[in-house]
Fold this protein.
Amino acid sequence: MKKIITIFLPLIIGGIIGFVVNTDTYSNYITPPLSPPGILFPIVWSILYLLMGISYTISSKNKDIKKFYYLNLIFNYLWTFIFFTLDLKFLAIIWIIILDIIVILMIKAFYQDNKLAAYLQIPYLIWLLFATYLTIGIYILN
């Protein structure tokens, strides 16, 4: 039961934040080229949150993994509030760049412990770098 909770916890918290924060404003922004439709975000984030939970569950959860994993989740969840609720787009850029670095360090910690756990985070890093591009693009265009 504990493993199931560990796997689904990022998805559950992400889902709650998705319901609490009004992300519908995304459609009001002028977006950069390659911007996906808003409906794609909850689908992609659901998959990524599950992969995060799986990676964390299959790793040994050493001190570095725990530190980077939970720091990643905190920065990830707070970005949504910074960008959408507080409308602090420049801060959101800085925040997501820090998140990019945290995720790279998290993947490195996973890799040292369990290569599969690290590989499962590659889609997250790619999507996060794309989200960084979108954040910068929306800041510039709006």
Observations:
- The longest helix spans residues 89-113.
- The chain has one domain: 2-141.
